[in-house]
Write a structure and sequence with these properties.
Strand content: 15-25%
Structural class: alpha/beta
Shape: globular
Largest sheet: 7 strands, parallel
Radius of gyration: 19 Å
Distance between the termini: 17 Å
Number of helices: 13
Order of helices and strands: HHEHEEHEHHHEHHHEEEHEEHEH
Amino acid sequence: MPARLFPTTVIGSLPRPEWVREMVLDRNAGSLSETEADAYFDRAIESAIAIQERAGLDELGDGEWRRESYVKVFAARVRGFRDDLISVDANVSYPAVVEPIDYWRPLAVEEIKFARPRTTRRLKATIPPPYILGRRMWHPDHSATAYARAEDFMAATVPILRREIELLVAAGADTVQLDEPWLARLVDPAVREREGTTDTAYEMDLCVDLINQTVDGFDEVATSMHLCHAHFDRRHGSEGPYDLIMPALNKVHVNTISLELATPVAGGMSTLAGFPPEARLGLGCIDDCDRGVEAPEEVIARVEEAMRYVDKERIVLHPDCGFAPSVQNPMDVDEAYLKLGAMCTAAGRLRQRYS
């Protein structure tokens, strides 16, 4: 991120206009060819870039409008998966890994290649890291013949993700973000019970070790890790402060750790008392799940509270999460634009106040 105080960025997805949502679904169903869809996506994503520039962001992405979801993009671009084998609820199912995986097509490289000549601002690429891939897309009934354990599948994703990062750097990405909400879910006792998690320390260490294996050595690009409580239709999948996982976050080898902190379910800023002393704090200061558009002074108050724990020079502003991490997630693009604009206005006022 730039050296200026309080730089602004996105976490990833913008809400998709309905016609873009329909294109993703029609492409997936086979009623629209990938070539036909890409011709429309190209025009749509130029508007996604313009929305973010107009809002005033220092760093932006392509809105993730070509993707069905931030996790499923891996299964769409890597061979070895079968769709819809793992049911989450009536709205969402996930592919399962059923064969040894093979890097077929890049995950986000084409997104960066398309966006790079269309903006002079910093570009962020977002990819799913090994731990959440294993927790989402390994299943004992479907995957054990390919990978005996989820950990074996997770390990197999590391060289694929490292190759992806190499290509993203060459394509012009300024930041590569790893989206790891599953680690944040561990802070919720109800989730641990539901998932049958009995050794939280093991899970934390596994996640962090895989993140470090993925990013170590990439000094030519900024790296970040995003954690949140995940959301669908404005409801979160877990809740609780991040105190339990702070020791693990102190072991992560990324430049920026981004936390969802605007929503009440995250438990407040006091959790930052244990935040790593060297990392930049990606401060979630916009609540994606609240329909109300924050006033700039409300955002400023959140940032100033975070400054009680983290130096202002290490704070990056962004929304709590991507606005629509999956195509099934109903959100409003105009609402997102107004929220991003309020955040950028707040950043400008903070710079005036603290420069």
